[in-house]
Design a protein that fits this description.
Number of strands: 7
Number of domains: 2
Order of helices and strands: HHEEEEEHHHHHEHHE
Structural class: alpha+beta
Strand content: 15-25%
Largest sheet: 5 strands, antiparallel
Helix content: 40-55%
Length: 245
């Protein structure tokens, strides 16, 4: 392995804000792939941030390079509670909030112990109740988007749950995504810079939605945010091309 290349790549990722990837990077590169991806998750306040890093091998120079990364922001989702198709969304949110979803990934065991249904399956019974509610919401048109937002709020970043829930963030008003390219001899966009950029994209998306609905928008409230967005876009054009995804 090209140890100097690995150290340089580790340093680059660290400086961009992608920390604790050192050993994982070595484990990927030792298999000598032509390219691979990393999925990195973090948060800023109530915002969830998801990154997919694309790393490729330069066969001529025998080095691995970070080519670009995709970033998405999931804004905090707050519900205006109601009852749809017999489902009380306030009760559903309480149930989903009480479950530690990250502990629910299935792992194989050789033998199953004897389980007492009432004592040991209480969490699974609650999850089954949640799934019933989500299915009921999805049965009617006005509940489909609401069910998606519940899944996004509680399942985002958990790969097996995203797959089970068939989550499509692009259909949500709460998710904004962007691709950031990295070029030679350029620092690139850091996690914090990407977060600010995505925040402003989210604000612009919200303003567009409000205008589309015919609601008056106070320009003074968005003026400073718009200026910041333009400034970040200019920085992005010099530090790495941006491509919306």
């Amino acid at each position: 392995m090209n140890q100097e290349n690995i150290k340089a790549l580790q340093t680059q990722l660290f400086n961009l804000g992608f920390k604790a990837l050192g050993s994982a990077l070595v484990k990927k590169i030792c298999f000598k792939p032509d390219k691979f991806v990393f999925v990195y998750e973090t948060s800023r306040g109530n915002d969830k941030l998801n990154f997919t890093l694309y790393i490729e091998k330069d066969a001529i120079q025998n080095v691995y390079k970070l080519m670009h990364y995709d970033a998405s922001i999931l804004k905090e989702i707050q519900f205006q509670h109601t009852v749809i198709n017999g489902v009380d969304t306030e009760v559903l949110e309480r149930k989903m909030s009480s479950i530690n979803w990250r502990n629910m990934e299935v792992s194989g065991v050789d033998e199953l112990p004897d389980l007492k249904l009432d004592e040991d399956w209480s969490n699974e019974i609650l999850i089954e109740s949640v799934m019933d509610d989500l299915y009921m919401l999805e049965e009617i048109e006005e509940g489909k988007k609401l069910a998606l937002n519940f899944k996004l709020k509680f399942w985002s970043g958990i790969s097996f749950l995203e797959e089970i829930g068939n989550i499509k963030p692009s259909k949500s008003d709460y998710v904004v995504s962007q691709r950031f390219y990295i070029y030679s001899n350029q620092t690139g966009i850091t996690i914090d810079e990407a977060h600010r950029f995505l925040q402003n994209m989210s604000m612009e998306k919200l303003v567009h939605q409000i205008k589309k609905q015919g609601i008056a928008v106070n320009p003074e409230k968005i003026k400073s945010k718009t200026k910041k967005s333009l400034r970040l876009k200019k920085q992005g054009s010099s530090a790495g091309l941006l491509k919306e995804i």
